[in-house]
Amino acid sequence: MVEDVILIIKRCLAGEEEAWNAFHREYSGIAMAFLRWKFPAIADDHDDIIQKVFTNLLTSGLKNFRGTTKYEFLSYFKAVVRNEALSCIEDRKRRGAGSLQNEQSESEDGPPMLEIPDPDAGSHPDRKAEAREMVTLLAKALKEYALVDQEIYLLKLRGHMDKEISAILDIPMGTVAVKYSRIKSRLREKFDDHG
Questions:
Q1: Does pTM top 0.70 for this prediction?
Q2: How far is CA 82 from CA 7, 36, 46, 49, 178, in A?
Q3: In the prediction, which pLDDT does 49 show?
Q4: CA-CA distance, 168 to 92, in Å (whole number)?
Q5: What does pLDDT average to in each consecutive run of 10 residues of the chain (195 residues)?
Q6: What DSSP string runs through 29-83?
Q7: CATH 1.10.10.10 region(s) of the chain?
Q8: Span 124-195: which CATH code?
């Protein structure tokens, strides 16, 4: 295990190549193990996903980490890897690259975007525009919450049960229920105030 990850992150942000190499060696293995465990259906894309993860971490992800312990960083890192894997699944869906189990969609960078299917797409442009506006507002509102809160909320919207979310995010089921209830109430208040 590399030295204290918080120190390594500081050294990486300072531009120390040796620190970045040590960080990459350690955490690329963790990313690969996580992808093999959680996303075996996209094994052909694991290397590409890991490359995107480290590109994102290098360009902005390490700067955006606000934790203070290695456990908080590991949770953050796994969330970044998970988001890239989900983006890969979404890209495959868009390209029509076959069916994958447990497909979910999220944007490539920042908070996940929510797709709102419009059953009358094309025949009601006003409804489609309203749906897009709602997605934009929701994405903007979700940026105010921690990454795990965003993931819980969006997984619930996609129909996942608390038990599934607990397993996906590796957090207690009670935490899922409490966080979802809290964010749902706050978003409802915000959208009630908005319109």
A1: no
A2: 24, 11, 11, 9, 22
A3: 93
A4: 20
A5: 75 90 90 88 90 88 84 87 88 65 38 42 58 73 81 80 81 86 83 62
A6: HHHHHHHHHH-GGGGGGHHHHHHHHHHHIIIIIHHH----SHHHHHHHHHHHHHH
A7: 124-195
A8: 1.10.10.10
CA dist list (Å): 105 to 45, 112, 120, 193 = 16, 8, 21, 28
Cα separation of 58 and 16, whole Å? Answer: 12
Instruction: Check: CB of residue 19 under 8 Å from CB of residue 13.
Output: no
Cβ-contact 57, 109 below 8 angstroms:
no
Q: Tokens 């690969």 identify what position?
A: 32
Closest to 81 in 3D by CA, of 55, 103, 120, 117: 55
Amino acid letter at 177? A
The dihedral formed by the CA atoms of 77, 78, 81 and 82, expressed in degrees to the nearest 10 = -140
Which residues in the chain are classed under CATH 1.10.1740.10? 1-102
Q: Which helix (H) or strand (E) holds 181?
A: helix 173-194
Q: From the centroid of its chain, how far is CA 141?
A: 15
Cα distance between residue 62 and residue 70, in whole Å:
13
Second-level CATH architecture of 1-102 = Orthogonal Bundle (1.10)
Rounded distance between C-alpha atoms, residue 8 and residue 62, angstroms: 10
